[in-house]
Amino acid sequence: MPEFRWSPQPGELEFDAIRASGPGGQNVNKVSNAVHLRFDIRASSLPEAVKTRLLSWADQRITSDGVIVIKTQDSRSLERNRADAVARLIELVQAAAHVPKARRATKPTYGSQQRRLEGKSKRSEVKAGRRSKPDF
């Protein structure tokens, strides 16, 4: 099965630079290196099937309005955080594009059923042999 190749158009992405949380010393209060990426699913260039699958997901990154919000603050560089956010978005969309193979129900073979029952009866005999015999 071919892998779904997609990259977002520059106009579809909205970046907000915010201050990162966590350690960083004096610099953390001055520099906005964390990134919020917003991506509107309904207004995107994605195929309709992928859009509906994404909108039906119960993912905390997808708002009720159908906007994906990804926050990255792993790097101290704003550009690296932007690239990481776009990579995470592409990964999320590719996961939604993957259609799982339909499962076909099967029955166990007659031989496997017989082996299972045989094993159960042997185990039953072993346990019955452990029981104490009544003294009459």
Automatic annotation (TrEMBL):
Xref: Pfam families: RF-1
GO molecular function: peptidyl-tRNA hydrolase activity
InterPro entries tied to this protein: Pep_chain_release_fac_I (IPR000352), Pep_chain_release_fac_I_sf (IPR045853)
EC numbers, comma separated: 3.1.1.29
Every Prokaryotic-type class I peptide chain release factors domain range: 9-130
Sorted UniProt keywords: Hydrolase
Biased composition (Basic and acidic residues): 115-136
Listed SUPFAM superfamilies: Release factor
Family: Belongs to the prokaryotic/mitochondrial release factor family.
Protein name, per record: Alternative ribosome rescue aminoacyl-tRNA hydrolase ArfB
Lineage: Bacteria, Pseudomonadati, Pseudomonadota, Betaproteobacteria, Burkholderiales
